[in-house]
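Step 1: inspect the first sequence and its tokens.
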Amino acid sequence: MTTSIIQEFNQRRYYILGILIILAGWQVLAWASHPLIVASPVSTFQSIFAMLASGELTKNLIITLQRQLTGLSLGVLVGTFLGIFGGLKKSLDSMFQPGINAILATPSIIFVVIAMVWFGQGSTQVIFVTALLIMPIMYLNSAKGIQSIDSDLLQMVKVYRVPRRIKLFKIYLPGLLYGFMAGFSLSVASSLRITIMAELLGAQNGIGNAIFIARGYLETSKLFAWALLLVLLVMIIEALVFNPLQRFIGKWQE
């Protein structure tokens, strides 16, 4: 136990060292350039506190997270639902593949523009674009999770007529969860980027719109502040959602 504690401490130490190196490099880059080009760490944190005090940070963060979570939920539900059928039936997988490949091959900005034509500016187009671009990620991972189940095991289950309940919870569900977790972890980070990109062009509020305004007024420290906040947000989600969920699924599969 003492050895594991020492190893964990060493890992944390190097992780913190990596953060300090990034901050030092950032500061050197700020010194070597103009404040309108690269904001220093100090001015960036000052902008964060100023936005927090004015309420701008909280208001835009809540709006963006609401859009992200709604679009993410729709994309995950539809993608997983279709992925289950695609994983179980190869004919359905072949039928779904052209549409999935078309969405993945099309630049995201095109869907944003189309959504703006269909829905105008606002939450609807942001949610639509987010759900649409998350759906293929969940489909592919869910389908591959089911398809990765050992065919010999499935054949044995069929021969011995294993009850449907056992087959579902002991074979298919663990296979699905393996692909689901891989797709979900990627989808959460991707959905945040997609939501902000859609807001940048087609919304009148939210983080994306705040970034657009900051760029227009050359408020570089605000741009860096939002970028830093988004990195921190992903780290918080990973610590509070992914890690506990992975531990729970690991215990459930044992």
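Step 2: inspect the second sequence and its tokens, then contrast the two.
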Amino acid sequence: MVIATIIIIIYTLALLLIFLYALSQLNLLFNYIKHKKATKNQVKLDLSVFKELPMVTIQLPVYNEMYVMERLLNNIAQIDYPTNKLEIQVLDDSTDESFETTKTQIEALQKTGLDIQHITRVGRKNFKAGALKEGLKVAKGEFIAIFDADFLPQKDWLKLTLPYFIDEKIGVVQTRWGHLNKDYSILTKVQAFALDLHFTLEQAGRNSQQHFINFNGTAGVWRKTCILDAGNWQGDTLTEDLDLSYRAQLNNWKFHYLEDVETPAELPVIISAARSQQFRWNKGGAENYQKMIKKVFASNIPLKTKWHATFHLLNSTMFFTILIVALLSVPILYIKAWYPELKFVFYIMAFFLLSTLIFFCCYWEMFKQIYGGGWKKFFVFIGQFITFFSIAMGFSWNNTVAILEGHLGKKSAFIRTPKFNINSISDKRTANKYITNKISFNTIIEGLLMLYFAFGLYSAFVVIPEGQDFGMFPFHLMLFAGFGYVFFSSIFSRAK
């Protein structure tokens, strides 16, 4: 009975935290809908707001990007902005043959009159943050636009973003990520589904009420004085973008989010690449929670902004909470059968099904905004929602390891996400030298978790001697499918 009580308490607390997070998302949904109505006919600014066009530096932090460097540089060279007001810095930490090919391409672009510099350094101290900081020392621009190697901004990108800096309190303008290869596979569809919520409801919902948002590491532009005033780039977390964003906003800089400006990029097409990216993002989120939460609560920002900042910084930790709920759901099934006197507790816990309904509504609003509404689209959405939730839960072990390392202060290297130069569904994935063929320990654990939730499915038929209990069956089926997908994809989609 004691063990059963402890399990119920932990399970209920985890569900409560998820429910509070869901309420935070629900508030963002209301903010987002209100914001869309208020800005429906808003006049867009253009470069005429400047008496004199400002100097801009575009920074391209790269490291061993052999497959996408040519595409990146060709694209950036097409940016429509006066050449005497534009500087491009290729911040190249590469250690493979891409270094020489990049150097050759840069030299060719220099001959066209483009001010493009190949900036290198010895070692990768502080990884991407270190490279950005190094480039900033010699940057000519008043504004610093940053693009990762897989991003392809439109020609008029600077014309669409720079005008908002006419407000001298604006430190950052961030644009929405698009997806070059969203329909390439189930994996890319799931990633796009998750990112689309962040880049619609979350970013716009927070920004509309002046709550803290984050520069997303790419596809945004900083005011140089904002970077310096906030303490410059720091490499003590794996998400240097989130770190600097919070330091800047705590220093009273404002951020502006442009949902209507889309900057397309390539989604990871192999699960090991997606796993690596998820690990870095989630560990960095946990590291920033540890670094920033006390500063947030010690600041004089509004209480509601502190609430949203807390759940923003705890966003990655939700994977840990979900894993706890998942693992305990099987013993909960047996406790429910063996201790009828505790039946009332389970009626209370059923209340937290509202969390799933809230998430469903939030994702549906996102889906409608991007892909349109109607009954046909709604049924497509339901299938994508179930697929997304299943596979997201399948990533929960990988992400939980990252989260725990982040909260416990374990340091690790910044592992780049391998790219394949895939621009559409018709492109084929080729071998990639940056992909490892090793099966990780986490993959083995995910296989065991798949079997564990298979046992959960079996338990529904036998847990009660005189009948069955299918209350957890849909949840366990999604967990079985999610961990099964991650496990088998990790085994069979490795590079040859």
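Step 3: confirm your contrast with the notes below.
The mean pLDDT is 92. The first strand starts at residue 56 and ends at 62.
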